[in-house]
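In this supplementary section we document a worked example of the pipeline. Step one takes a protein sequence of length 197 as its only input; no multiple sequence alignment statistics are reported here. Step two produces a three-dimensional model, which step three serialises into structure tokens for compact storage. The input and output of this example are shown verbatim.
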Amino acid sequence: MNLNAIISDIMCRVMDKLSSSASDVLLLRRIAGGDELAFSELYQRYHVPIFNYVLRLIRDPKEAEDLLQEIFLAVWRGAYRYREQAQVKTWLYSIAHYQAVSWLRKRRLVTLFEDGVDLYSEGPEHITADIMQRDDVRKALNCLSTKHRAVLELAFVQGMAYKEIAQVVGCPVGTVKSRMCYALRALNGKLKKMGFT
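The serialised model returned by step three reads:
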């Protein structure tokens, strides 16, 4: 592949991402006006990755389904409050994060994965989700707190930058970096004890 083809491919991906982000904003504006078709389209775009994120935080498929409905109900009711200060994706994950953390606080759960959890396998994130389900990695992740697992999930599975993660979890960027550093160091230590090099 020559340099021009690589540059062209990168530009196409950037333009797709920008147009997708702009169309998400238009969808939210239409949802704020009560447009059910726009709501359905936004749901179709984001329900699988949002479900997977919530499931990996709370570890309960049935509750994750219920939370998914609550999240999108909050989107329907709160679309008029979106002020375009963050990407729609970031805004959605912020709602999902809040709902999941609230659920965890109520139930005092501190682990992320459990054996036998069947994640959705649609969408591009399923490859990473499948890798993260490996027993060894799952066991190591179980040793981390929810706030540390959340930053790993948002960065490595959802592909968010530190600034976006900070908006989702509601803390300064410096705190996100600190949590990421701690989480990676702790995960590395656990994996080394399990025999990974």
